[in-house]
Amino acid sequence: MALVALVARLDRPTDRLTRAFAKVEGVRITEAIVIAMREALERWRNRETPLETAARLRAEFGIELSKQARNPLPRPVYDQLACED
To answer: Residues near 29 by Cβ (< 8 Å), separated by ≥ 6?
Structure first.
């Protein structure tokens, strides 16, 4: 496994927050940043389901689904799109 150095120039408030988080977690600053980024990404991923995202975007752009569009396509259609028989 290769070692990669992380050099970050943090402003004072960010530096204070990072150091406080590292102290609370009992880890080095680099590890604190990794933990915080993982948690932020996880929150972002779980913020809404794909169905919720689709509904939000439809509402945002004023798109209404027809009754037919609400039904999933049959499996052979997906197989054809994937070039599978």
So the answer is: 18, 19, 22
pLDDT per residue over 13-30, tens digit each?
999 999 999 999 999 999
Dihedrals phi, psi of 16, to nearest 5 degrees: -60, -45
State both tokens at 17.
């927050």
Tokens of residue 51, six digits = 């169905």
Tokens 């977690």 appear where?
A: 25
Q: Which helix (H) or strand (E) holds 37?
A: helix 29-45
Question: Does position 2 have pLDDT exceeding 90, yes or no?
Answer: no
**Whole-structure pTM over 0.70, yes or no?**
no
Structural tokens at position 62 = 């004023």
d(CA 83, CA 29): 49
d(CA 85, CA 74): 14
Take residue 4 and report the two structure tokens written for it.
């990669």
